[in-house]
Amino acid sequence: MILVLAAVLAIQDTSRITEAQSVLSQLVESYGVSGMEAPVRATVQRLLPSWVRTETDTAGNLWVRAGQGEGGGPVVIVAHMDEIGFRVDTINPDGTLGLRNRGGFIQSLFEAKPALIHTGGGDITGIFLPRDTGLTRRTPPPLRVSVGATTRAGAESLGVKLGQTITMPKQYVRLAGTRATGRSFDDRMGCAALILALRRLDRSKLKHAVIFLFSTREEIGLEGAAAAARQLGTTTRRVHAIDTFVSADSPLELQNFAVAKLGAGAVARALDNSSITPPAYVDSLAEIARARGIALQIGTTNGGNDGSTFVPFGVVDVPLGWPLRYSHSPVEVVDLKDLVSLADIVRAVAEDW
Amino acid sequence: MMMQQAVKRQLRRSRDNGGGRAVAVDRRICFLTVSTAALAVLTASLSAQTADSLAIRFSGMTAITGYEQAVTDSLLMLLPGSARDRTGNVTLVLGRGSPRRLVYCSLDEIGYAVGNITDDGYILLRRVGGGVRLYPLFDQQLEGQRVTLFGRKGPVPGVVAVRSTHLTRGRPQRDEPPFTVDNAYVDVGASSRDEVLALGISGLTPVSLTKRPHRYGDRLLAAPNAGRRAACAALASAALSRRRVNGTVVVAFAVQSLYADTAGLKTVVNLQGPFTESRLVTVPSTFLETTVETVGLKDVDALKADIVKWIGGSQ
Q1: Which candidate, B75, B20, B40, B109, places its Cα nearest to that of B235?
Q2: pLDDT digits (tens, 9 = 90+) for B58-90
Q3: What residues of A are in contact with residue B157 (Cβ under 8 Å)?
Q4: Same CATH topology for B17-109+213-311 and B111-209?
Q5: Which residue, among A345, A341, A283, A275, has the nearest Cα to A313 in the 3D structure?
Q6: Chain A residue with Cα closest to B220
Q7: Which residue has better confidence, B74 or B283?
Q8: Cβ-count burial of B171 within 10 angstroms (0-12 exposed, 13-18 middle, 19+ buried)?
Q9: B111-209: in CATH 1.10.10.10
Q10: How does pLDDT run across A97-123, given as a tens digit for each residue?
Q11: Exposure of B262 by Cβ count < 10 A (0-12 exposed, 13-18 middle, 19+ buried)?
């Protein structure tokens, strides 16, 4: 009987991983630099269960409301749709494009790599130019992009315009075991967790109204979430930002904090650069995870989270994440088991807390 | 049959990609793993291809100096009548009589091989090829990028570790020296040495940046080693054009041009020479030794036409 149960669990695990991968890969392969999240928003809408009705606010945030509960204010669970990248800031007389960063990252990872300029009508291909020879330090001078044009008019004739966003091509790739790599797992893992939780949500169990919020412009200052926080004001009962736990699980990182193993489950992001979760809330969260048998790690890492924009309104922020290696790089690495765990804990805090 | 259909589908997809955005080089079509049956289909399709479509395809291939065998396997199938010598060069003899001339391209590239595997499943590298004149940022192009490890069980995707942006705050960055291969930890998703070995990866497994030839602008092609691969594509396309040959022309795809004092070319000359004339074919490229080394596909077409003329005896 034990063997049969184990086999059944294994099959279930496989199907959960398969579903998680199916959702995550579609989100990761959608492009959405901060301020231009429409393609990601469309992917989220496509992946949501059929009962869901969505609203998009003027900040571009996508709202999903579930349940009425016992009245009172809602619990907000928020993940951001945007990703790091660049914006076309200038079109130079020699046809190259000057860039402005959208979010923080290591510039050299984009130097001498293929580029995509995202327009409303498809992508224009180009390259991030290598630096001129002679500069042998790690960090390059400000990056420029070539679309193969030699004049400003030539670049414009290809469809390049100021304000368009630029990234490099990305692809979801499965690694050994249940690991995967790609760019923008931060925060498509969070978006995937919300979608997976909504697919299994038992709305009859909700104690409170719950808002699942897919936010915009997190990477450039938590702007979308801030707009939602202002709109809800002091009515919000509690907020959970579902975002990356940047992990030191790497041979290149110091081990003084940010310790959370890949594959060991979701992480309570109890202390970061923007918020501190009251210890009693961390204990409650741990109890909910324990009661449902959900793997949960507790730790501290760097970075800010969308939930912190609710704190000035008297709202407690209980952020949750998953361990991520190589944050904001083209090769972020995750473990799909952690996504399943994260989706389960998101569902649990919606239904049980 | 299924494999043949898969390759036909892939060829169609590849042609479709030719005029558009990034040309993803799928693991499934990696030349290092294509079966004999699939290569037969590939050969049949080759005559219908232009030099520039071959340039895109060749730019997606990996031939680390000294470890070119898989690519030369493919060339043998692509070029009926060709042969491989013990050093690994692929040669095709056209025509007969005199004069006896040589036209060749350099096939190999600087790359990496597995040097060690840590207990916790990270893979360490050594560079293969590249001397003191190597582009000083060559290794840095690995950092935080995808790589392919050509293991005994087939290609394995991996990534080169990079410090997390969020955890670098407050540490000095601006004047840091470039990243070097000595700092390269390859992560294939394994958690132990045994898991790595189970993937077919061991010491000396060849490793390269994952190739994703990328078209942009007016028929520009960006890829690592695009110049060398485009030249070999023009040469292969010219050799397949079956035009008139003046005397004997040995067409050679030379290995180990970057190692052991150009051992590949010297072998060709010693085994198949002497030659009254020899010609290295090249395509002009910009951003040499970078991952976006760029060639103009117009130049590839022009080179092919020029090689055809040269084979026929015209200058």
Answers
A1: B75
A2: 999 999 999 999 899 989 999 999 999 999 999
A3: 173-175, 181
A4: no
A5: A275
A6: A148
A7: B283
A8: exposed
A9: no
A10: 999 999 999 999 999 999 999 998 899
A11: middle
**How many Å apart are CA A38 and CA A305, to the nearest integer?**
21
Q: Inter-chain contact A252–B163, Cβ cutoff 8 Å?
A: yes
Rounded distance between C-alpha atoms, residue B137 and residue B185, angstroms: 17
Enumerate the residues of chain B whose CB falls inside 8 A of the CB of residue A267. Answer: none
* CA B144 distance to own-chain centroid: 21
Looking at this predicted complex, what is its ipTM? 0.93
Helices (H), B68-135: 69-78
Instruction: Give the separation between CA B6 and CA A167, rounded to whole angstroms.
Output: 31
CB B182, CB B128: distance < 8 Å:
no
Q: Average pLDDT, stretch B112-121?
A: 98
Given the DSSP bridges, would you call strands A173-174 and A165-167 parallel, antiparallel or unpaired? unpaired
The domain made up of B17-109+213-311 is a member of CATH 3.40.630.10 = yes
Q: How far apart are CA B74 and CA B52, in angstroms?
A: 18
The domain limits of chain A are: 2-83+183-352, 85-167
The shortest CB-CB distance from A250 to any of B118, B136, B161 is to B161
Q: How far is B87 from chain A (nearest CA, A)?
A: 33
Q: Residue A262 in 3-state DSSP?
A: coil
CA dist B297 → B50, B283, B307 (Å) = 10, 9, 15
Say if the Cβ atoms of A331 and B146 lie within 8 Å: yes
Minimal Cβ distance to A148: which of B145, B217, B287: B217
Give the containing element (helix H, strand E) for B101: strand B100-106
Find the residue in B nearest to A116 (Cα): B21
Locate the DSSP E strands across chain A.
54-56, 62-69, 75-80, 85-91, 97-102, 114-119, 122-128, 144-146, 165-167, 173-174, 179-182, 208-215, 238-241, 245-246, 266-271, 296-300, 320-321, 323-324, 332-335
CATH of domain A2-83+183-352: 3.40.630.10
| Residue A53 CB coordination number (10 Å) | 9
* Reported confidence tier of residue A136, pLDDT bands at 50, 70, 90: confident
φ and ψ of A221, to 5 deg? 125, 30
Instruction: Please indicate whether, in this complex, the C-beta atoms of A175 and B157 are within 8 angstroms of each other.
Output: yes
Judge whether A104 is closer than 8 Å to chain B, CB to CB.
yes
The strand pairing partners of A296, in sequence order, are A266
User: Which class in CATH covers the domain with range A85-167?
Assistant: mainly beta
Taking residues A310-327, report their average pLDDT.
98
- Adjacency order of strands within the sheet including A62-69: A54-56, A62-69, A208-215, A75-80, A238-241
Measured distance CA(A78)–CA(A229) in Å, rounded: 11
Which chain B residue shows the shortest CA-CA distance from A105? Answer: B165
Query: What's the rounded Cα separation, in Å, for the pair A209 and A110?
Result: 43
DSSP B167-195: G-TTS--TTPPPP-GGG-EEE-S-SSHHH
- Provide the token pair at A180: 């995967």
A9: number of Cβ within 10 Å: 10
Are A338 and A262 in contact by the 8 Å Cβ rule? The answer is yes
Residue type, B81: G
For residue B99, say if its preceding peptide bond is cis, omega within 30 degrees of 0. yes
